[in-house]
Structure prediction request, 105 residues.
Amino acid sequence: MKKLLFAFGDVENPKDSTAELLEEIVIEYIENLLVKAYKRSMRKDSTSSKVSKHDILYFLKDDPKNYMKSVRMLALSKKFEGFQGKSKKKDAFFDDGKDLFKTMK
Prediction:
């Protein structure tokens, strides 16, 4: 957490209490988000207890900045899924390069 604080502009060695407080806030935020998403997933389909990315995005829509970051990260994640197994292939990244750059615009 201290490295994250520094990366976002805090001093190089922030106080332990600051890092601990921020960690508590982040954990509480994520827990609350996941509990809401779980409850939503149970309403939609009572036979499955899986939380989908759509359940999480539903609650992020009220925070446009985090919502858009999440949507972009999910899109990039989907694009790069196939590259993990192709890393030994010399031109694996460029095989689908045109489609990748179209979606990033």
